Amino acid sequence: MKKIIVILLITTTTLFAQNTSHTNFWSKISIGLPLTNKINAEAEFQKRWQKDSNENSNSIPDYKLLSSIRFWVYYKQNENITFIVSPFAYFENDPIIKTENDKNKISSYENRFTCAVELTKKITSKIKLQNRIGIEYRNFINTTPDYFRLREKMSVRFNINSKISLIGYDEILVNSNSTNGLHNFDQNRLGLNLNYYPTKKIKIEFGFMKLERSQRDNIDNLLENNIVLNTNFTLQNKKLKTND
Predict the structure, then answer these.
(1) pTM, whole model, 2 decimals?
(2) What is the pLDDT of residues 47-66, one digit of tens each?
(3) Distance separating alpha carbons of residues 221 and 150, to the nearest angstrom
(4) What dihedral do alpha carbons 233, 206, 84, 50 form, nearest 10°?
């Protein structure tokens, strides 16, 4: 736990000390269905918007940044280990707008396949540590060559009560290849989310993320502020016994 806290503090200090050059709004709706007592399936729909960096500071993120649909399968071996697979995902990645010319660039399209493992350790009745390690294959349809991307997400969860929890996290993404040797680092995502459970079947997630992103056409990284709003619905499988 001490190592994770030190890493989060160092990363927080580094990112928040830098000026941000881009503002985005991320949203996601996911619908889950338990197939067995150990296996859950989920469909995920994402939309992200960005603000033109050249516009005034009062403007809202109203330019498209990303659209996606992705499917997940979760196998919970026990309380500490969960295996995760995304057998298919489709992404439309719109160009990041830093200059007026960026608005005329074409979007990239990709199929994505992912597998990961999530390790959970209960510290107290209210605090849990999680470490999610994964690899994804990015199959681009009309732009850059395909490649693998590695990602690791460390998080601390604090349950305030049965309906509200706080999650702080840091996620690092690394590319398996780089055309010029300068862009193996892809992203670093540092965030804090507030989770609210109005019912046992609905979760609303609101948060803020500071993101540092590598730029393929620039050796300087792009710094972003991201407002995050996610909603998760869990459908009831009447064939399974529940504690509801």
Answers:
(1) 0.86
(2) 999 988 666 666 788 899 99
(3) 18
(4) 110
